[in-house]
Amino acid sequence: MTIAFLAVAFGLALLVWSADRFVEGSAVTARHFGMPPLLIGMVIVGFGTSAPEMVVSALAASQGNPGIALGNAYGSNITNIALILGLTALISPIAFHSQVLRKELPILTGVTALAGWQIKGGEISHVDALVLLGVFGGLMAWTIRQGFQKKADALGSAMALELETRTMTVRRAVFWLAVGLVLLIVSSRILVWGAVEIARGFGVSDLIIGLTVVAVGTSLPEMASSIIAARKGEHDIAVGNVIGSNLFNTLAVVGIAGMIHPMSVGPEVFSRDMLVMAALTVSLFIIGYGFRGPGVINRFEGAALLACYAGYTAYLVSTVFSR
Q1: Are residues 16 and 224 in contact, defined by beta-carbon separation less than 8 angstroms?
Q2: What whole-number distance in Å separates Cα of residue 196 and Cα of residue 183?
Q3: To which H or E segment does residue 263 belong?
Q4: Interatomic CA distance for residues 249 and 255, integer angstroms
Q5: Does 153 have pLDDT greater than 90?
Q6: What is the pTM of this model?
Q7: Positive or negative, the Cα torsion across 285, 251, 118, 123?
Q8: Could you tell me the CATH number of the domain that includes residue 220?
């Protein structure tokens, strides 16, 4: 059991480091090839920060651990909104300036509703996974179209300023992109093995491990980038990380895992985890869309989000010890 705990700790540390290398290498490489800053912020960074969830869930599904695959995706969404945005807002209130992000908020809400409708049937089948990946492909096409438009946007401007601080050469960027990707796979294998061994040792379901330890671990890249961006006043990058990551998790992460291996879904996933994720997503939509002006997540709302995360996690832990 000690080896399993060490494997999880080492796997998470290597996962976070390799994800950071992968994101930076990808963003700088994309800039060298002339990709617009808005597109880099929406696609490259969003994909990069969700790469840990994607690789971990794909490996878990291929090894017959659907609980870790699904719990990682939905748990990361809950962590992104409640823990990461809550903590970030406590440090610095988050203002929504980007029109693109405001357009993505109702899309994220609709995608969450689609996911809820699918898992209510008790399974993520190959057809369900194909639908998720199809929606993801359509969303990526719309995102790329938005990114290549010449309209000024707060997210694009913030990303352009951020990219100006990256002086890495293209050869070095490609090197770190490749190294980061390889280490992502290696660290994910170590993490999944350790998580499965811990679950077996304590008699805890794979789902609970996926919703807690694995979800928080794979969300650490989003946490680091969001907090750093907020401290720099780049609020739209902080929010963009979370919205983009949640879209990737709900569509691509679950879709890829479901294509690898259909996943049976227990009723508690819908009645507990999906409802919490949906409530947090709707609250983010209401706060961020700003029906009476620019949306802002203030410190009070940040504290409320953190309280929701603490309550949800405490409930999950209580279900383990009540057996």
Answers
A1: yes
A2: 20
A3: strand 263-264
A4: 9
A5: no
A6: 0.84
A7: negative
A8: 1.20.1420.30
